[in-house]
Amino acid sequence: MAAEPAVLRVQGLSRSFGGIQAVDDCTFEVQPGVITGLIGPNGAGKTTVFNLITGFLSANHGSIRLQGTEILGLSPHRVERLGVVRTFQHLRLWNKMSVLENVLLGCATPAGENVFSLFLRAGAVRAEEQRARDRAMEVLSFFGLTDRARELAEDLAYPEQKLLSMARIFATDAPVLLLDEPTSGLDSESLGRIIPMVRRLVDHGKTILLIEHNMELISELADQVVFLHQGRVLAAGPPADITSDPALTEIYFGV
Amino acid sequence: MTAYLTHFLVMVAIYAILALSLNLLIGYSGIFSLAHAAIYGIGAYASALAALKLGLGFWGGMVVAASAGAFASALVAIPSLRVAGDYYVVASFGLQVVVLAVFMNWTDLTNGLAGLPGIPRPRLFGWVIDQPFEYVFLAAAFALLTWAICWRLTNSAFGRVLQAIRDDEIAAVAMGKNVVLVKIVIACISSALGAMAGSLYAHYITYINPSSFSLHESIFIATLVILGGSERLAGPIVGAFVLLAIPELLKFLAIPDTIAAPMRQIIYGALLIVFMLVRPEGILGRARYGR
Amino acid sequence: MDLFLQLAATGLVVGSLYVLCALGWGLIYGTTLHFHVAHGAVFTLAAYYAYAAQKFLGLPLAIAVIGAIVAAALSGMLIDLLIYQPLERRGAIRTTLFIASLGLLTLIENLLAIIFAPDPLRMDVGWLAEAVQLGPVFLTRLHLLSVATAILGFLALMAFLKYSLWGQAIRAVSSSPEMARTVGIDLRRVHLLTYAVGSAISAPAGILLAMDVGVEPYRGTTFVLLASVAVIMGGIGSIPGALLGALFLALLENLGVWKIASEWQSSISFGAFLIFIVVRPRGLFGRKIQSAEI
Q1: The pLDDT of residue A254
Q2: DSSP state, B35?
Q3: Nearest CB partner across the interface for A104, out of B160, B177, B185
Q4: Partner residue facing B185 (CB), from A98, A105, A115
Q5: Chain B residues within 8 A of C266 when measuring between CB atoms
Q6: Which residues are registered as beta bridge partners of A236?
Q7: Is pLDDT of B224 > 90?
Q8: C128 DSSP assignment
Q9: B174: Cβ–Cβ under 8 A, 6 or more apart, which residues?
Q10: Are A17 and C291 an interchain contact pair (Cβ–Cβ within 8 Å)?
Q11: Measured distance CA(B271)–CA(C36) in Å, rounded
């Protein structure tokens, strides 16, 4: 086991919705530089955990520490600033904007986004915009989307849209990436594009926590697995341990 | 005839400013405001009162007007934009109603329904701008300034963030954008510019009263924005031109006054419905956009 | 004290009208998420239908009123069918729908103003105009009828939503359209039904108001926006919340007149709204966000 401290430490996380305990005393760790997969049957609370980590939901109890800093209860944009960024199951691309613009929004443009500097520091704003565009094109190239730069996000094929949703969070340089069902809706050919891409992100030093619905893909995708059921962590460990456990597979396929 | 034409042009310029500023909200940020006439009125009254009671000239009055507009907007925007959803529409309606009530009832300050006459014309280096065609240049200059400000805002990283908010707000938040702050900022800028138009109006007509700043007027300005198209900056200007021409055309049809006012509203209402059904991007808007 | 009671009573009467308006608008908003400002036009149309039925068709008041309610329900359904559903099919965003609704409200109000002239038209209400004295308070029978209608309307709506199959379908869609679609509910039909029920429950408010102070084309705008404030304060998706929000607003306005001059009446409601959304944005009984919505 790695002796390095965990990047993300979730402890005792709990959240209920009107009587239903969606997440129940959930505890797990995400190690740096590896892919951790969050799996479990439908309704296990995986997306709720993502929403709690990224600040879209408040928790009833618990703690979420990023490199030691408590991030539970912070608003989503603050969480992003601290280095955690996510994709969405329903993508949420800015459909009426171009592929390039989608990625540009991930690049650092603080001067251009500040109204005062926009008018008073035109030179600095222009330079920053150029740097951002160069960076955005690099990111597009990394994801194989260079030819699509000027097209609208909604005009892309679905696998390319999935790549775009990863590209824009990659552009933010955030060290921790949360991928919500990166493989859903893809045929085997497209999987052949996406899965290596996720691996390449790790090669770039990113820490990845992903939600995966497909127990069969999890061995390919993840180095560590956390099995969630009815909001509770039932098991955590390497994929082989989880997929070979008959009790767990029964829960997964039986429910 | 020339007097008629110059008056028309001045009003087109003023309405272009109103439409361009409201477009920042409705067109680029996807936030609908029913209070733009109230903001317009705040600018007019603030500037008029600054001139009449404090002896400030046009230029000082304009600064007061822009500040008052931004402040009023912030008061409403800060509580209502924190919450997602349609709260801002309702809050803006409330602002419109309350502001109009103030104009009509706080008679000590605003003279109520009687209005404020005798607002001075602008002075530029000792020269009084009181010829109609001089005013056309002044108004056009301000319209151009507004256009330039809007252009700078929308063609920038800030403009990208606005469009991202309109397209998918939750994604914008997840990507680290402080959406609430951006919305409040754009609401204040939009109102500062709208109030500036009010100041121009007050010092042009030299008399203002509450009836120019009603909810009907807010709907009219929104119609200008929507018809002209929100995705290009020329849109609101075209919209202003077209919609101001309509009442003039109606006059040629010799329709009695009691019918003319509701008739105009019917045309605006019908135009809104038809455009939403057939061409929501407006006259000049591109069906889709992307650079 | 007598003045206080009189103001409270008036507040209850006006509140009854706000309640009916808020229940209808809130049902529609909570289920379809359409910001249906044209509801104000339906509210106004109901009054004109009743007036026209009485004056031009010579129908007795009760029949005219019932006919008007049915006609209003149909009008609401037509608006959804002819305007909102086509817009949704074209992928319109919510603001687009709001704009179309606003256009429709403007168009209908002004069309009525041209057809009927903008001055208030009086209806013949017969014995309903008689005054009744309850202790120190003076009301008309019409006022009492308004309160009764609001109570009945609320109870009927609650029963409908809880016990009838159609009502349950509406609640399912209101709570989660995605889930409702999954279990086979036809969303378009439920929307049409929601518009019918929502319009029918608010129609009496427009009619009762018209019977009291005359039929006028421009009142709908204020009423629908007050209804939206009431619904937001009570919590979107909550019928009892809409009731409480409406009553609270009406009492606030009418009792507020006690201390604040009457021209500021409308300002009181919106001032209260702003304070409310700072302190408790989701309203009294607003539903909590479901994780799946994100």
Answers
A1: 65
A2: -
A3: B160
A4: A115
A5: 97-98, 101
A6: A226
A7: no
A8: G
A9: A54, A56, A76, A77, A80, A85, A86, A88, A92
A10: yes
A11: 18
* Residue A125 contacts B where some CB pair is shorter than 8 Å: yes
Predicted pLDDT of residue C39: 97
Work out the angle at residue A13's Cα, subtended by the Cα atoms of residues A12 and A19, and round it to the nearest 5 degrees.
Answer: 115
Q: What is the token pair recorded at C141?
A: 């029978």
C-alpha dihedral, B156 to B159 to B161 to B166, nearest 10° = -160
CB pairs under 8 A between B and C: 123
Question: What pLDDT sits at residue B85?
Answer: 66
Chains that contact B by 3+ CB pairs under 8 Å?
Answer: A, C
Beta strands in B92-147 (DSSP E): 123-124, 127-128
Tokens encoding A78:
């603050």
Q: Which positions in chain B touch A93 (Cβ < 8 Å)?
A: 168, 171
- At residue B231, does pLDDT exceed 80? no
Helix/strand/coil percent split, chain C, to 5: 80, 5, 20
pLDDT given for residue B287 in this prediction? 47
Give which of C52, C214, C34 is closest to C120, Cα–Cα. C214
Nearest to B152 among A104, A119, A172 (CB): A119
Strands (E), chain A: 8-17, 20-30, 35-39, 61-66, 69-70, 84-86, 176-180, 207-211, 224-229, 232-237
CB-based contact (8 Å) between A96 and chain B? yes
pLDDT of residue A171: 96
The confidence score (pLDDT) of residue B97 equals: 87
The answer, for A63 touching chain B at a CB cutoff of 8 Å, is no
What is the spatial distance between Cα A10 and Cα C202, in angstroms, rounded to a whole number? 50
| Tokens 């705040």 found at | B42
Q: Apex CA B122: angle with CA B234 and CA B117, to 5°?
A: 100
Residue B290: is its pLDDT beyond 60?
A: no
Q: Is B252 helix (H, G, I), strand (E, B) or coil?
A: helix
| Gap between the Cα atoms of C20 and B57, Å rounded | 52
Residues B196 and B146 sit within 8 Å (Cβ to Cβ) = yes
Residue C77 phi, psi (nearest 5):
-65, -40
Q: Is C203 exposed, middle or buried (0-12, 13-18, 19+ CB in 10 A)?
A: buried
Neighbouring subunits of C (3+ Cβ pairs under 8 A): A, B
Between chain A and chain B, the number of residue pairs with CB atoms below 8 A apart is 98
* Interface predicted TM-score of the whole assembly (ipTM), two decimals: 0.91
**Regions of chain C short of the pLDDT cut 50:** 289-293
Q: What distance in Å separates the CA atoms of residue C154 and residue B111, rounded to the nearest whole number? A: 45
Confidence grade of residue B285 (pLDDT, cut at 50, 70, 90): low
Q: What is the mean pLDDT of residues B236-264?
A: 79
pLDDT for B143: 93
How far is the C-alpha of B242 from the C-alpha of B134, rounded, in Å? Answer: 23
Please tell me which residue of chain B has the smallest CA distance to A168. B175
Residue type, C149: T
Cα atoms in the 13 Å half-sphere on the side-chain side of C204: 27
The segments of chain A whose pLDDT lies below 50 read 1-2, 255
Which of C274, C280, C282, C291 is the best residue to mutate to test the B interface, defined by the most B CB atoms within 10 Å of its own CB? C274
Return the pLDDT at B84. 66
Residue A201 backbone zone (phi > 0: left; psi -120 to 50: alpha; other: beta): alpha
Is the pLDDT at B282 greater than 70? The verdict is no
**Nearest CB partner across the interface for B98, out of C103, C111, C270:** C270
Tokens of A3: 């002796």
Local structure of B186: helix, strand or coil: helix
The CB-side HSE value for B191 (13 A sphere, CA atoms) comes to 30
Contact between B80 and C274 using a beta-carbon 8 Å cutoff: yes
Rounded to 5°, angle at Cα A54 from A52 and A57: 40
Q: Which two tokens stand for residue A148?
A: 């699509």
Residue C261: predicted pLDDT: 74
pLDDT exceeds 50 at position B228 = yes
